Each structure stands twice: as C-alpha cells, then as structure tokens.
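Input for the complex:
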Amino acid sequence: MSLADSHTIVVDLGYGDAGKGTTIDWLCAQAVSAGRKPSVIRFNGGAQAAHNVVASDGRHHTFAQLGSGTLHGVRTHLSCFMAVDPIALSAEADALAAVGVPMVWDLVTVDEGALLTTPWHRAANRIRESRRGADRHGSCGMGVGETVAFSLARPDDAPRAGDVLAPRRLAARLTAVRDALTAELGDLGYEPPVSAVADAFTAFASRVSIVSTSHVRRLLADGPCFFEGAQGILLDEWWGWHPDTTWSTTTFANAESLLDGVSAYRLGVVRTYTTRHGPGPLVTYCPSLSARLLDVHNGDGQWQGAFRVGHFDAVAHRYAIEVSGGVDGLCLTHLDASVPSLCDAYADGTQRLVPGEFGDLAYQEKLTNYLTSAEPVLTPVISWVPAVASALSTPVVLESRGPTALDKRASSTE
Amino acid sequence: MGSGRWSTDVYSAAERYRSTTGRSAFAYSDEGARTVHPLLDPRKARVRESRDSDEHPRSTAIAVLFDVTGSMGHVPRQLQTRLPELFELLLHRGYATDPQILFGAIGDATCDRVPLQIGQFESDNRTDDDLGRIVLEGGGGGQRTESYELAMYFMARHTDLDCVNRRGRRGYLFIIGDEMPYPTVKPDEVRRVIGDDLAEPIPVEAIVAELTRSYDVFYILPASATYSGDQQILTYWLRLLGAPNVIALDDLAAVSETIALTVGMGERSVTPDQARRDLVEVINRVRL
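Predicted:
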C-alpha cells in the first residue's frame, strides 16, 4: 500500500518550515495519478501559514489558507479549527491565478464553525506587537492569535463562517469586534466601516461553500484525506517553549478529532537541519549554517523576526514526537543540503526533555529557561536517512532532495 | 512565512469574489454553462411526476424552487450546499413518509438566459445532481420582480402528484427568493420557455389559486442585512399566500431544517411541542 492511499496527517516536528506543503503536494500528486479523489483538510492556524510548493514546471506558490494540493486541482476544506481570513483568501486566489491556476473557489469549503479573522483583529495584532517592542512574540501579524484570543474572551461575539449566512448576526458580531478592540487598544487605524467588511464576507460566501461539520465525513468517504498542519509541534500553545508559542494546537489532536475514530497515518516532517522563524529558544542555532543555508522562501519577516538555522536537534524533535503521542513515519526533507552533523544530546548530557503535565505553562516556561542556556553536542553524520531514523526511533518513509514532487521518493529504513 | 505580502484591501477582496472571470471545477454553471442543462429544461419536461412505488408506497411531493438571479447574491451558492441535507432531515426526523423532492431555479424571463430550471421528483439523493446542474445567474438583479409566476404556472400545469391523485393530500412547494412575481403569466414567455400555447395572460392570483389545488405553497425570504428592504416584499407575499405560508429566514444555515419542519407540521407528524424543541436545537447549532 502506498502512503497516498490512506488518510494521512502531516505535522512538523520542529518550529515550522520543514516542508509540510511540499509533502502534501507530493501526496496529492500520487493520489491524483492513481485516480483517487483526495482532499486536503486544514486543522489549525489560519492565514499565517506559508507552505511553499514548487510544481515540476517551475511554478511556485506560497500556500496560506488554500491547501498545498491545489496545483493538482485537489479540494481544500478549512475545518472548524481554522481561523479563516476571507480577505487574505481572495488575495491568495489572485496570486494563484497569476501563476496560471484558474479561480479555485469551487475547490474550497469552509466549516460553519471556523472563526473569521477580520481586519480589526489584524490591526490589533500589529498594534500589540509594536507596543511590545523588543519583547515581540514573533507573531506573523496576520491576526490569527488575536482572532483566537478574542473568541476565548468573548465567545458570543466572535464571528464564525456560519455567521455569513445570517447577515444581521454577522453585522452585530463584526461591530462587537471593532468596538471591543477599539475600547481596549484605542484607534485601530482601520478606516472601512463594518458594512464594507460584511459586504466582502458576503461576497466570499457567493463563491465559497460554507458547510456543516458532517462535511468531513463525506470527504473521508470520498477519497484519501491529507490533513495539512500549520506551524510545528514545538510552537504548540501547550507543549511549546512558553511564551514563545502560537495560539494554536499544532499536534495531531485536532486532526484526530476531525477523524472521529477513523484511522490515519501520522507523518512527521523534519529537515536535515532545524530552523526557527521568529524569537524563542533554538538550542542548535549556528550562525555559519544560517548564512550558508539561506532560505529562498523565508526572509526575515517585518512582524515575525529573523529566520535562524541550526543543526538537527534530535533532542527537541524526540520531545515533539513524545508529546504528540507518537508518529508512524518521517518525511525527511532538505537531503540535498550538505550538513555534516546533528545534535543528539545537549552538553549536560540531556537526551530527553521530560514533558510536563498538559496545560502546565509554568513548567513549559522552565523548559524555555533551561533551553535558553543549553548547549548542543554535535555528532558527525555519514548517511542522513538511517541517522535520523535511528535518532528519532522512527522509520523515514519519504525522502526529499528538492522542492518539487519529482525530488521526492518513498523509502523505508524499517 | 508571512503571507502579508498579499494585498488585504477589503474593497478589492469583495470585487475579486464578485468578478465573473472565476471558473470553478464542479458545478455545471461554473464550467461556463450559459443555458439550461437539458435535464432541467422545462421545454423538454412535459410533466414532472411524483409517483408511488412498491418501495415508496405513500409518496409526499416536496418541491423547492429558488431564485438564482443577482439580487440573491451569495444565497443560491449556499442553497446548493445546504439543500442536500433536506432528505436526511425529513427521513431522520420522520417528518414525511416517502418524501420525493424536486429542485428548481427561477430567473427572469424578461432578461435572463435561464428563466426556469426544473429537476425531477426523486426519492433519493439524485436530487443533488439536479442541484449541481442549476445555472446560477449572478450579476444584475434588484428590480424587485422575477418570473416567479412562470415557475408557478409550470408547477400548476406540468406536474402530476400521486399524493393528490390517490390520497387527496397536497404536496409542498417552497419558493425561496427576495423579490415579487410579475403581475401576470405572459403567453409569449410561456411559449418560449415552456412551449405551451396560452390564449391570454393569467393573473398571478389565478395561477396561485390553481397551484394551491395541488400544493401547499410557501414563500421563504432569506434575510438581508437590513430589515427595511424586506418589508415590502414580505407584505406582498403575505397578501398572496396568507400569513402562515410566508417565512422570513434569518439564517441560511437553517434552510433545510425550516423546510423539513414546515413539512412536518403540515403532515402533523410532529407536535407543536416537538417542533419547538427541534427549533431550539437548530438555533443552538447554527448560533454555535
């Protein structure tokens, strides 16, 4: 059985950017060429995602909300765990049209329970980050965390996709967002009135179907579903290095909840080196690697901060596997980069970071403090695939030596 | 990371979503179809039949026609998504025995390419295929009148229902839209769209009277952002159909439940108390 025959959850075992997009693209290419009807389901985060996919003909797109299988005509479902930004989505479709992919609306469905990110959330996000000055959290400035925070503080006022079907409720909730955030932060500097935002959201619904939660069951019955995670487990709101985390559950948990008992393959993605975009501990950080392995798709973001590169941090990735409840296989990317060593332990002998109790953020903060001063011990690597499989005690099932689907091949170290 | 590189202007987003250059992958309409699908063509459909069978001995005919013109904005697209739930709801809640559902679409015979699209009565989810074949007009609209009377004419004279013939029980016809019919059924439109020779115009009140021999007719108005525009329309339909048969729908997500519950009340298969409990459940679901 090939990997692309089964439902598969793809998560990043680090801090993001390891290659979830390109992995999803490969899975979709396999499934489509086998005559299947796959779907990509997004299950966390929102428009902050930046999943780079390069087609074999050289076309490139950075997927933010649309699934990374879109170049193959594969459907995207934005699940109830997403914060959906209809305005950014229209711009993303426009960018896709520019690389020759026709309008994609009919490929997209949105769960009626998905939160909606509004321009006021985005404005508030940027104001907060600016006021934090040097203590920035590394937010992407897209308002995703703000959207989630608002919904937790004021669940009855938070706009959701289903509200677009009830115009008066939509207007009331948009007004509540604008007023609450303005009361808290002062002028948000966002001029357009509520009616303009409501109008854009309604236009969104004239193209994109807003569906009930049972839709996932239909997709699961229709073909293999590839669950495309955003960010990485080490940025998880509960398991990451607090407070340098995201407002999102980045483990398999949300996807498993959507699967509702249907089994799926759990695929973890890692590069042959570990990267981090934005502030927070990166134990294996190496300035010379950072300079050498400049990432074509990851510049230093205005809101997010620097992109740093370090050696493969097996200690941190093992922790990610442990807190996520285990992975079935690994996708190892960037095998074309020549990195001579990996980190299998820290200088004090630590090989395992012990997980705390779920939800114990004070413990997570202690981990952060420990990691800030931890030093890596490097071990030379002769052959990457067996080295990573052994360091993480997990088979490598997919190898990637370049950006396109053609650069990938299934393997097994079992 | 950081897709903030893309323009996030609210006005251009609305424009992009509404631009007609979009082409999508599944729906007949989005493949660029500009004429009625042959299976939905009223000229080819002499009579749409709702029949009893061994498998479905006590059929209940339920027809749902919705306005697909531009004034409806996002509503038709969402109805295409939502209406497939209707079958399951009717069966699951036991609101109707052997429901047979027909979907159709209403445009404007004075200017639209597809003034009338009519599917078949089906006892299973083949109705979903009909929904997918419906051409959404988009664009234009807003003149306060569409060819609802032409659709009512077709349903009055070109359908044949066993629930009426055999049991003397009327079917159910739901019209979902945000405008009013033209004052008369016009012979030239009837000839062109349906293919009948009609000697003289029929006033809309007369066609409603004829139609209600076979159907209990309901009008559903999906809410717009303001109440003011809706009132004139509601008043018109209240006069035409009577108060119990006009429904203002605040939340499109509840359209299938609303239709199902209306049928259930009509069939007396649900008590008012149960109906109220079901409604509360629906409201809790859609309000999240």
